Amino acid sequence: MVEEKKRGVPESRKTVGYEDPSKYLTQDPLVEIREYSDHVRIIAEVSDQDPQTIVVRPIDAFKIELSFKYRGRNIKKLVLLASPVNPDKYEVRIKNGVARISLCKSSGGACST
Q1: Which CATH number applies to 27-105: 3.40.50.1110, 2.40.50.100, 2.60.40.10, 2.60.40.790?
Q2: Looking at residue 108, what is its pLDDT?
């Protein structure tokens, strides 16, 4: 009698000794920029709920660097802005893992963030 072979993955196709590839496939957090008449709002996906963990570092009037945690990783994003902003006047609010960073424009007038 002929012995039946068990169906399954052939030995030649088994991946033994390789690391899990899913740990290298990462997704960057979504960052959106909205411009209003008196301020610019940056909306970003973050993991932390504490506004103190988000660092807003102005490079110049048109560039802002954001540092925050996202899914256990430290993220740095360089955000290029269309309008100049005042780097000293900003506000950070976090709700449900979404940060809203409002930056007042340099144009002078009152800023309602």
Answers
A1: 2.60.40.790
A2: 63
